[in-house]
Amino acid sequence: MSVVSRRRGVDCPAIHLNLNVRGLPLSSTLAINERSASLIASGRDVIKLGLGQSPFPVPEVVVEALRANAHQKDYLPVRGLGRLREAVASYHSRRHGVARSGEDVLVGPGSKELMFLIQLVYYGDLCIPTPSWVSYEPQARIIGRQVRWLRTSASNNWGLQPEELEALCKEDPDRPRLVILNYPNNPTGYTYGMDKLRRLADVARRYRVVLLSDEIYGELQHDGAHRSIAELYPEGTIVSSGLSKWCGAGGWRLGTFTFPENLRWLLDAMAAVASETFTATSAPIQFAAIRAFEGGDAIEDYLHQCRRILSALGRVCADTLRRSGATVGEPDGAFYLFPDFRRFHNQMRAYGVHTSPELCALLLEDTGVATIPGSHFGRPEEELTLRLAYVDFDGARALEHAALAPPGALSEAFVREHCSRVVGAVERIASWAESPGVRQTLRHRTA
Ligand code: GLU
User: Which CATH class is domain 75-294?
Assistant: First the structure.
């Protein structure tokens, strides 16, 4: 009997999958990256605006620290290396004016993993604005948590309004909730001003929600003036950060959560699960991360140039899309735009595009530009939105030239010269959206 059922398991694997993961595809960000890579390998010229990977190299001082620590081979403490936890705490105290100690920090192999762990250990609904980053919702579903989407609108740059959060909390005031707020935002590039953060913090406090403030793009706010909601709701806010975006080290896989002292029980529960799963984060990477979180002039200069480039490029891309008739918000930070092509509804329908997945699939097919459909961020399928990550350029070269350019905002000419693939791709998107019927011409051009 056991042999038979084991065989059945092999023959009909789907039956033996946990219900929560049956039919679960690869995460959209990674799937588009792999699809782009395989198209490139087959000879297509694909412009990769799909995966949100920093175009910039890791700062040399941090690479140097990694080199110097390549020999570190021991398992490190589950919660993270003591000196790193101290460095992360003092980074947050310094940058955000919120007093935290090393004891408040949990280090993991990417903030994504920590987000999964918090949902696993915290028994409450996951509340996220629509649109939100592609992985929050699938993580909740894998674990079996209830997901509540919070409405937003394009006219508010897709930002969460305090009234929406309040309306949800009022439905059942004592229900435990984990609210994720992400700013500068993936997928929109929008960030909240201090007034809006204050009003959101007031609602969060009133209903005692656990607020996970995903600030992984904080250092990439284009004006360099990122503020944390932890300043305003310190007792209930966990700040998520890491090396992936501002330090250009996505592949190093290091993320951090910084807790208020009264949520230490949550940190401890996550550490217990970590000890039974990933054990500890890679030792050499943790030693190198100390250098990154310590900051200093070299890192400040690097960040200053990264921000100048992203700010100028984001503006050129948004203007190009807007001129063509797409609706798109002004980018405040990170490297994303979330255009809405509703204006082109008629020509899209005539061309066979009824949904955002169809929009992105045909766009890739016709123009060679890879993007991610708005529906993967929690928007309705029939809404013609997509996310583009303006990252397909040589970040090292752009940094070198930005350092030589006169101070102040970088010019459009700079962006056209050093980020030409991205600018060209956005122009292709704009002209394709205006007349999607001309796909043969475009296909020839990219071939
Ligand atoms: N955060 C990045 C993005 O949204 C990619 C990293 C990932 O999904 O793991 O494209």
Answer: alpha beta
